[in-house]
Write the structure tokens for this entry.
Amino acid sequence: MTKVLSLGGSIVAPQGPDAAYVRDFCALACTWLAANAERRLIVVVGGGGPAREWQKAYRDASGQAAQADAQDWIGIMATRLNAQLVKACFGALCPQDVVTDPSAVSVFQGRVLVAGGWKPGFSTDFDAVVLAQRFGAREIVNLSNIAKVYTADPKLDPSAQPIDAISWDEFRAIVGDEWVPGKNAPFDPVASRRAQELGLRVVCAAGKDLANLEAILDNREFVGSTIGKL
């Protein structure tokens, strides 16, 4: 049984790395893995605050000459640094190098596989979708700094309402179809399109709530939003 977690950079590194969270997250994951020898975990790590800060620095330094691909590469490097931290904390459970091209990895050694960003035009959410397809997972758990998906951005629309379950068509009508470097969406639009094509389900939940994450991993009742159906 393989579970895929898209672990938001805003959780791992809201500004700089959150060592206490990474420690507690890895401890929970290790406990879950130890309960069943057939369990495996794929963790795809985002860029978080450092990615946005370095992207902003590039935009400020280059002015109108700023290029989308260059911004993406800066963000990708931040995801890889965060991923390397998470991999290191799993120790011997994660013997493989951090995955930087999810389309090329063909083996899963150990119990944990950790991935960072891939290439411009794709977020780590998309990488999670590719790895879910490659290793036969039917669900992705998307962990971020929001507990549920809303009908609109609650920071901009005070009438926005939380959603428990939503179809892919309805969700994609909210987030659109275009990927923008640093875009803050519950699940990346390009990844959403691919996940719908593959018939995957995505669970969006608050990454800081580790008790809730444990419930999700154990298929118990949880707080969050489910996108799509299995």
